[in-house]
Sequence to fold (179 residues):
Amino acid sequence: MSDFVSLDSGFIQVLQGDITRQRVDAIVNAANSSLLGGGGVDGAIHRVAGPELLEACRPLGGCRPGEAKITPGFRLPSKFVIHTVGPVWHGGHEHEDAVLAKCYRSVMDVAVANEVRTIAFPSISTGAYGFPVHRAAPIALRELHQAIDRYPQFQVVRVICFNADVFRAYEDAIQDYLD
Fold:
């Protein structure tokens, strides 16, 4: 199941699947602030990458919400993992939208600094952190579109949805974005 959206200066692919299987330069980890592994996407990435990822994360000293840090991908098919910490949902009253948008900008800035040309994102903060996916998807698409405008060197930008409900939310956001 997939959908593709064409934007002015590039494109974003939205797919349902497993981010740990993406053959891109970098995958994005929706990490916790310790960067030392956790549940959901974070746990899956750490399991597939192997214990070397944990050892590479230890000296990074964690990560604040909205920021991003990079490590090698180790046993993943991607060269890099770019870790970002999304906001925990508190009803939208603690600047969650702004922090989520900053995650996407920070990741793309780190990607550019490391010559990443192909990248895959999960739906940041919409799992255990409880950010409503129908609110997060338009933010993700807007920020990725703007990043492609700023950095035309990106050849592939993907959002990997872990289930059909998340995929449908991105489909809806694509339709709204194009209208």
Q: What stands out?
A: Residues 4 and 92 are 29 Å apart (CA to CA).
